[in-house]
Write a structure and sequence with these properties.
Number of domains: 2
Strand content: 15-25%
Order of helices and strands: EEEEH
Helix content: 10-25%
Distance between the termini: 59 Å
Number of strands: 4
Structural class: alpha+beta
Radius of gyration: 21 Å
Strand order of the largest sheet: 1-4-3-2
Largest sheet: 4 strands, antiparallel
Number of helices: 1
């Protein structure tokens, strides 16, 4: 039995059960999906156009990242640095006529 599959969301071959190989329908992001034929449970993660199926028995193989809090000091500092860079870039471009 396969423990994890990573593939394109558009390819139907990547939407098969990890145990029996039947097509899984109704996959939703960040949920646990059960195969209607064999009962195998899968964790479903969707990142853009990438689909990741992980066997529920092995949640340690799942690497789901949580979104960062916008009030986090690291995020605030990064935003401040980006704004400063954009301001300096505008000054540079106005000097050199670009």
């Amino acid at each position: 039995m396969t423990l994890k599959r990573v593939g394109s969301l558009k390819n139907k071959k990547h939407k098969h059960c990890l145990q029996c190989g039947r097509v899984l329908v109704g996959l939703k992001d960040n949920t646990e999906h059960e195969c209607s034929f064999c009962g195998q449970k899968h964790f479903v993660d969707i990142y853009g156009t990438t689909l990741v199926l992980t066997a529920a028995e092995r949640p340690d193989l799942r690497h789901r990242t949580e979104p960062k809090n916008p009030d986090d000091p690291e995020v605030v500092q990064k935003k401040k640095n980006q704004d400063e860079f954009k301001k300096n870039l505008a000054i540079f471009r106005s000097k050199w006529g670009r």
